[in-house]
Amino acid sequence: MDANVLGRARTAWRAESVADVDQPYRHFSQWIAAVIEEAVIDSERRLNEGLPYKPTPKGQIGRSQ
């Protein structure tokens, strides 16, 4: 992940944490997991008639260097 985007993500998490004082505290990794889940659900809605995708097995997607 681009270092600039990652830094901005940390800042967004901090801003969201301060803005949502009525919500329980979430660690950065929990916040990132929720963002990814929202993106997956949105993609399934737009591209798969709202149905869950079949999971891609671990190791099927190459790693970028």
Mind explaining what this structure looks like?
- This protein is mainly alpha-helical.
- It has a domain at 3-47.
- It has two helices and no strands.
- It is extended and about 35 Å long.
- The model has no long low-confidence stretch (mean pLDDT 92).
SSE topology sketch:
Elements: H1 3-19, H2 28-47
Low-confidence segments, given as residue ranges, are none
Query: Share of helix among residues?
Result: 55-70%
Spatial separation of the terminal alpha carbons: 10 Å
Please indicate the percent range of residues in DSSP E strands (runs of 2 or more).
under 5%
The number of E-state strands comes to 0
Order of helices and strands: HH
Instruction: Please state the structural category.
Output: mainly alpha
Give Rg in angstroms. 15 Å
Number of helical segments with 4 or more residues: 2
Shape by Cα distribution: extended
What is the averaged pLDDT score? Answer: 92
Give a short account of the largest sheet: none
